[in-house]
Amino acid sequence: MGQSWEFELDVIRIGAHKDLDVLLADPTVSRRHAEIVRTPMGVLLRDLNSTNGTFVGPVRIREVFLGPETRFRVGRTEMVFTQEDEVIDIVPSVEDSFEGVIGASVAMRQVFGVLQRVAPTNLTVLIQGETGTGKELISRAVHTRSRRADGPFVVFDCGAAPEKLIESELFGHKRGAFTGAIGDRPGVFEQAHTGTIFLDEIGELPLELQPKLLRVLEQREVRRVGGSKTKAIDVRVVAATNRNLREEVERGNFREDLYYRINVVEVRLPALRDRRGDLPSLVNHLIHRADHNPGVVGVAGEVMALFESYRWPGNVRELNNCVVRALPFCDTDRITIDALPEGLRAASADRAPAEGVTTASPILSVDSELPFKDAKDQLIEAFEREYLLDLLDRSDGNVSRAARVAHMDRKSITRLMKKHGIKRPS
Predict the structure, then answer these.
(1) Helices (H), 129-255
(2) DSSP state of 225
(3) Choice among 19-33, 135-149, 161-175 with the minimum mean pLDDT
(4) Which pLDDT value is given to residue 10?
(5) How far is Cα 152 from Cα 194, in angstroms, rounded to an integer?
(6) What is the CA radius of gyration of the chain?
(7) Hey, how many other C-beta atoms are within 10 angstroms of the C-beta on 374?
(8) pLDDT digits (tens, 9 = 90+) for 33-42
(9) Stated pTM of the model
(10) Do the beta carbons of residue 63 and residue 46 sit within 8 Å?
(11) Are the C-beta atoms of 196 and 154 separated by less than 8 Å?
(12) Alpha carbon distance 373, 108 (integer Å)
């Protein structure tokens, strides 16, 4: 009680052995219990296969990055880690791309700086960011730059699979485990063996399945639904979410122990509106990679001004959709205002230009020969359809995801789809 140690070492070893840096008399502490390691990305606490474990809060950990004033426990001894007179900054990469992901802004080069250090390791990565910011692209980039690049890269969307089948999809099933299980089937963890598994929208995972996922991540073995034997797996986990998982933990919607297990390295992707300086290079990249480009080489000045004034709620995915939709309607080698989706022009009409940007406001087309109510209803109908088409496109046809993005009830989305004759993509 009350003991303290101060070190200027890259590795600090904790345990009951007299030769270690921090010697503890606690009988529940192993001879070589844990270590604190300075890494380029931060300070890492690592358990050394101790008997009684190392804990951060209620969570038994193998390794976790320590923040200022982090409390942890070895055996029954509680300790507090404090960094004195040192700030670890993320140094932006000098490169303006990372495995096909581009961005010269400081925000993106900071992301690349983290990825360059993390990708070659086996550390679990949690990617956070709004819908459409490129979380799956980043996860693929991490896999490509890792030592597992020759292994499989398997994607599982926790928000898209039917709730009753999620467990089977994740862990596999044995024949006869449930109605329709006509044969043995491996889950995505087995499929990703020796490679990387990307758990997209992990915040959507049902609460009752979270302990099972945690057990797989901790023990690195799976048991198929309906089976009695476990199978060892060797996978690296990259997870992503557009939710604030810390808030979900506080609300009781996400287990704290699972949160700590997946949040070993956190990568936050900036929204497109926070990296507007990347727009010209992004637009150019999207134009030249499109597979149906009729000869377009750029955009008109008024179009770029419109792009810079728009908030892009769907981020880079929405920008990509806008560009590829416009290409077939271009009559010159530039994308003009007339080639853009009407929804973008209408949405941009009511938005103030970004600071330092001057642009003409697109004119919203209305028919003044109609009675006011009829003209208003016509405009609302057009807006609903355009918004819904764009929303479903950005949500990859997933109605549940579209409802979450729009802050609407799923039934309301379905009703509007029926009203406007929009069918879900097959």
Answers:
(1) 135-145, 166-171, 188-191, 210-219, 245-251
(2) B
(3) 161-175
(4) 74
(5) 7
(6) 26
(7) 11
(8) 999 988 767 7
(9) 0.64
(10) yes
(11) yes
(12) 47
